[in-house]
Automatic annotation (TrEMBL):
Pfam families: Peripla_BP_4
Signal sequence, start to end: 1-21
Residue span(s) of domain Periplasmic binding protein: 48-321
Identification of the protein by name: Sugar-binding protein
Lineage summary: Bacteria, Bacillati, Actinomycetota, Actinomycetes, Micromonosporales
UniProt entry tagged with the keyword Signal: yes
Subcellular location: Cell envelope
UniProt entry keywords in alphabetical sequence: Signal
InterPro entries assigned: Bact_Solute-Bind_Prot2 (IPR050555), Peripla_BP_I (IPR028082), SBP_2_dom (IPR025997)
């Protein structure tokens, strides 16, 4: 298991601060080498673009604010954009193109659709910008320079394990009936979370200790387009009607908090006992629900740390240094292995909710 904490320190030397504005650094990422470190850097007040997906969960809203403030504090000009709620891919493609045209030196992208950005990323790269994938990997492009994220496979493993632990704590012996949900199919993370969870759940399913009573075990059958709460609620309503007339539902694998709360709304609406439901993102309403004893768990992927590490990368690039990475092997995007800075996610249940958010001024008061 990887154990990295957000300890990266990027030193910016005075000499590096004088670095010349670097345009036209060309396609130096094509070789698949470590990228960055092309001792050139760029002007300290350069434009940095941040293209985020639609606001499908609180973490994206927070990230936008943190990037705007953090980049400005570091002396950069910041252009932070969100894709719209419906035409997400086209919006984001146009935003990245506009950032490139405006001369952004680094473009940070939280991809709406992992597989639909290769053209825009290639153009940005050719214009001399460095491209950083934020939270979600961008696939099938040799022009992506860096990836910064929480270990999202580990997120899935923690969810799968918590689901098993939570069910066992409630009812010592199985078999346990569960249902599986996954995120939006265009988000590369959705499959990563699901595979991580199945890495833990599949052996128990194979042994018969855990039963997916609907039979819907494939990621395609479990996907919720656009990470929409209403999609999850509708699917749970259907599953309850089709499968849980008399059967007991012990647990639900939910990939994030937004969907977890929608699943709980459905179950409560049907007058069924509350099953063990997983989540992710430490959203305010879900933390409250955990404290109340309804949602079983969430994942803490502290957005403040992820944005901080990303801005550290931008600062290093500005200074002409190679950004700090801690994984140069795991993230093959289909075209190259992408240099990655990975942070560790933390599982949170009622048992550790107080300590988990002790340093979070927004969440700590909710746990008292
Ligand atoms: C993020 C999750 C989030 C989901 C929906 C994923 O890519 O990693 O934290 O819940 O998007 O917004």
């Amino acid at each position: 298991m990887r154990k990295f904490f957000g300890t990266s320190v990027v030193a910016i030397s005075a000499a590096a601060m004088l670095a010349l504005a670097g345009c036209g650094s060309g396609r130096d990422g094509d070789s698949g080498s470590s990228g960055g470190g092309d001792a050139k850097g760029f002007a300290a007040n350069s434009l940095i673009g941040v293209a985020l997906p639609a606001k499908t969960s609180e973490n994206w809203v927070l990230a936008g604010d943190l990037f705007s403030n953090g980049l400005k504090e570091a002396g950069f000009q910041a252009d932070v954009q969100y894709a719209g709620a419906s035409t997400t891919v086209a919006d984001q493609q146009a935003q990245i193109t506009a950032m490139t045209t405006k001369g952004a030196k680094v473009i940070v992208i939280g991809a709406t659709d992992a597989a639909q950005l290769a053209t825009q990323v290639a153009a940005a790269h050719a214009a001399g910008a460095k491209v950083i994938a934020y939270d979600r990997l961008i696939t099938n492009t040799p022009d992506l320079d860096y990836y910064v994220a929480f270990d999202n496979f580990k997120v899935g493993q923690l969810q799968g394990q918590a689901l098993l632990d939570g069910m066992k704590a409630k009812k010592p012996n199985g078999p346990y009936n569960i249902e599986l949900f996954s995120g939006s199919p265009d988000d590369n993370n959705a499959g990563v979370f699901f595979n991580g969870a199945m890495d833990v759940l599949k052996p128990e399913i194979d042994k018969g200790n855990v039963v997916v009573a609907s039979g819907q075990k494939d990621v395609k059958q479990t996907a919720i387009q656009g990470w929409k709460a209403e999609g999850a609620q509708a699917r749970m309503d259907q599953l309850l009607t089709s499968t849980y007339g008399s059967k007991e539902l012990d647990g639900v694998l939910s990939p994030n908090d937004t969907l977890a709360r929608a699943i709980l709304t459905s179950v409560k609406g049907a007058g069924k006992p509350i099953p063990v439901v997983t989540g992710q993102d430490s959203e305010v309403e879900s933390v409250k629900s955990i404290v109340k004893g309804e949602q079983y768990m969430t994942i803490n992927k502290d957005t403040r740390n992820l944005v901080k590490e990303t801005i550290n990368m931008v600062k290093a690039l500005q200074a002409g240094n190679a950004p700090q990475v801690n994984d140069t092997k795991s993230y093959n995007n289909g075209s190259k292995v992408v240099d990655t800075f990975l942070l560790p996610p933390v599982a949170v249940t009622k048992a550790n909710v107080v300590e988990a958010y002790a340093n979070d001024p927004k969440l700590a008061p909710l746990t008292k």
